[in-house]
Amino acid sequence: MDTYDFIVVGVGSAGCVLANRLSENPKAKVLLLEAGPSQIPPEIENRIEIPALWPTLLGSAVDWGYRSVPQPGLSERVTYEPRGKLAGGTSNLYVLMHSRGHPSDYDGWAEQGCAGWDYRSVLPYFQKLEDQEDGTGPWVGKGGPIPLLNAGLHGPNPTSVAFIEACRELGYLYTPDFNGPQMEGVGCHNVNIRDGMRFSAR
Predict the structure, then answer these.
(1) 29-65 burial by CB neighbour count: b if 16+ within 10 A, else e?
(2) What is the distance between the alpha carbons of residues 188 and 74, in angstroms, rounded to a whole number?
(3) N or C end of the chain: smaller count of CB under 10 Å?
(4) Which residues contact 13 (CB under 8 A, 6 or more apart)?
């Protein structure tokens, strides 16, 4: 019987990163367990790679198709919660937008007793992960394994441009980087794309 030093259950975004880091030790034996298919049908593989086709993956063979419990804040509506059923998990079918979360979320965790989880403490780890093409400020990560393209610099959809312009005319703040100090406002997101293809955790 084979033995392992580490067993990672679920090869989604977090599981892939964890297994990769653990396997950096050449002496460690790491086993990955994934409930999704080991072979992805070619027609789905192509749809995963092409960013514009992400909506076609919802409800497909690689989506668990979860539903929430009734939500009191939504008049008891049940919401559709797509989750990836393959190596790389939901990083294969989400909308490709890269958002760290609001700094106050992390500061709130620290205030509730999670020492070291305040935004200033976790920022260096975000920066270590990221490789953002444009330099919008000192919070930007460069040289990491996750490519971040500014969608506004790569021929954005004319409808998106018109929407942003209309919002600015109405007085909404322009946000050049939603991972910067001002998350509220309108602008183009950073997206996980490299060489025109989705960059997932797998």
Answers:
(1) ebebebebeeebeeebeebbeebeebeebeebebbee
(2) 28
(3) N
(4) 88, 89, 90, 91, 201
Q: Give per-residue pLDDT as tens, 75-133.
A: 999 999 999 999 899 999 999 999 998 999 999 999 999 999 999 999 999 999 999 99
Q: Which residues contact 151 (CB under 8 A, 6 or more apart)?
A: 160, 188, 189, 190, 191
Q: How far apart are the first and last CA of the chain?
A: 28
- The phi, psi pair for 63, rounded to 5°, reads -120, 125
Residue 7: DSSP 8-state: E
The helix (run of H) or strand (run of E) holding residue 61 is none
Instruction: Please provide residue 77's backbone torsions phi and psi, each rounded to the nearest 5 degrees.
Output: -70, 150
The crossing angle, in degrees rounded to 10, of helices 119-129 and 103-111 is: 130
Instruction: For the beta carbon of residue 102, count every other beta carbon within 10 angstroms.
Output: 14
Cβ atoms 109, 117 nearer than 8 A: yes
